[in-house]
Amino acid sequence: MGANDESVFDVYRDRVDRPLARLFRVYGRPEVEWFALGMAANVVARVASLLPPLILGIAIDSIFVDTEPFTLPVVPDAWLPATQSGQFWFSAAIIAGAFLTTAVFTWIYGTAANVFAHRVMHAVRTDSFERMQRLDMPFFDDKQTGEVMSVLNNDASNLEVFLDDALQNSSRLGVMLVGIAAVLFYLNAQLAFVTLIAIPAMVLFTVWFMRAVEPIYVAQRASVGDLNTRLENSLGGIQLVKTASTEEYETERVRRASREYFDRTMDVIKLNYVYRPGMELLAGVAFAATFVVGGIWLFSGAPGPFTGELTVGTFVTFLLMTQRFVTPLAEVSNIIDQYENAKASSERVFGLMDIPVRITDAPDAVALEEPEGRVEYRHVDFAYPENALAAAEEEDSGERVLHDVDFEAEAGDTVALVGPTGAGKSTLLKLLLRLYDVNRGEIRVDGHDVRELTLSSLRGATGYVGQDAYLFDGSVADNVRYGNFDASERRVREAAEAAEADEFIRDLPEGYDTRIGERGVKLSGGQQQRLSIARTILQDPEILILDEATSDVDTETERLIQESLDRLTAERTTFAIAHRLSTVKGADTILVIEDGRITERGTHEELLSEGGTYATLWGVQAGEVEMVPDSGSSED
Ligand SMILES: Nc1ncnc2c1ncn2[C@@H]1O[C@H](COP(=O)(O)OP(=O)(O)OP(=O)(O)O)[C@@H](O)[C@H]1O
């Protein structure tokens, strides 16, 4: 789980090629009009913002000091006013117009850049969630969901900041530098060399900084991921933490992860503290050099190798312009910071998106139509992949959990699976839902290999009632309706009645509209289970999987649940895992699973008369059996 283990994330992230280019290609292209509008408005705004210092310099020379004729670049002299006061007001109008233009186009630019950034990110977030939830189960088994949350949250917002701020700032910087250089060279190419002499030094300094900071950023980001995983894991297991009273231990673990993040962040900050003042200093050198050379030029003529004249106005324009590029250049470290973040974040986003999904519809998959519910397992072998990476790479690395499992269930049959814990009962049924694929052999439903069926039709025909009945934030009715979203109120009610849930639901403060979850009522384990049974009744599947559905409840609730289950299983092919043998006595077939193999099979009577494992287990539980009230499921 540490940063050094090669997780499936690391591997696929490392394989991402030029992530920011891909971001623009895949997600930027559909929004290219916004991008283009933003960039165009940016050029206009920046060019307009260069006008006031230029006009000021010209006005000084031709109006205030009056040593030069009043001329403007580009504009023909014939258009210009002839009198000094006319020229003054004309200059004032241009300066006012320039400020107005800058304001209006900065607004257009900001809006377009924002719309671009947020549209792109909306698409990225939705897409990465869509990809993520389709990932194969081993990915989720690895308990790395903290990483995923951090991709969906941190990385998405890093990209947002980059697309929004950094892109704005860097394009502003680019236009400013080119614009300022152009104006300075136009006014006095020799002095422009002096002013811009610091630029190569700045570039070199920046290259050094980028090289130095890159590995530090990588370490910082890894530590954020670890911290998130740590938080998510510790909170996810809160019940265990409390019952084991390991709060201090968990706090210590979080403290260590947080400390690591703190230290890595400080490394970044330290380097930034060198870079920023360094850039300011270089910009200061440029300013001072311009001031000294220009100053000498003004009061004692062209110094050293320089030739020609320098006017006061040009000198002022030079100093104002030099001042202009100090601030944006000092922003370069922010831009680099955001750029590095965005590069890493987009690598993570695309790394996540690139993890291959193995369990998906085959290209020629067919829908299971009018399913009957006949199920066959043919010589099935299965091993869990060692981890998500092995699953993604289709490595056959894990230990074998099922060996040559071979049986069949006719439509409507009830098959009970019993056996010691860890024997492979749940695994066997997960294969039927295609949460994992078999390594050898095949599983057939109505004669079709499950790998040839569409996942939605296979899973739509298969209902699952498990040990933890997950309920979503929402009303009781919403939860019963989950997956069958257009079921009418009447059908929801009928399903709840069949699941023996109607009565307790009516007793809730707002009946079927009562909210469950964070801001609503909390339900007991038995109530949750009955809601989940109601949901399955509404789904009306042909095949039903019951995974020890009646655990953790009192006998009265168990009786109610058992009754609702009996109603549910009556017409359907049912696979039931149960540790209490009393609940499986009436099954058409009982399979005893030991160590991933079917070791006994037959009806209750057959297995008893065989005198094997089942008979022994039955003997052990017989005392209990007498005490369990008649569940209505037994047929003898
Ligand atoms: N997601 C998983 N990834 C890797 N191995 C797993 C996973 N789930 C279960 N196993 C392993 O597979 C074996 C079979 O587990 P399974 O849950 O199928 O047993 P079970 O018979 O249903 O047990 P129980 O009655 O305790 O639920 C166990 O050795 C377990 O460690």
From TrEMBL:
The keyword Translocase does not apply. PANTHER family: ATP-BINDING CASSETTE SUB-FAMILY B MEMBER 10, MITOCHONDRIAL, ATP-DEPENDENT PERMEASE MDL1, MITOCHONDRIAL. This is ABC transporter ATP-binding protein. CDD domains: ABC_6TM_exporter_like. One of its GO terms (molecular function) is ATP binding. It comes from Halalkalicoccus tibetensis. Keywords: ATP-binding, Cell membrane, Membrane, Nucleotide-binding, Transmembrane, Transmembrane helix, Transport. Pfam families: ABC_membrane (PF00664), ABC_tran (PF00005). Residues 36-341 form the ABC transmembrane type-1 domain. It is a multi-pass membrane protein. The chain crosses the membrane at residues 34-60, 88-109, 170-187, 193-213, 281-299. Residues 375-620 form the ABC transporter domain. The keyword Transmembrane applies. It is found in: Cell membrane. GO terms for cellular component: plasma membrane.
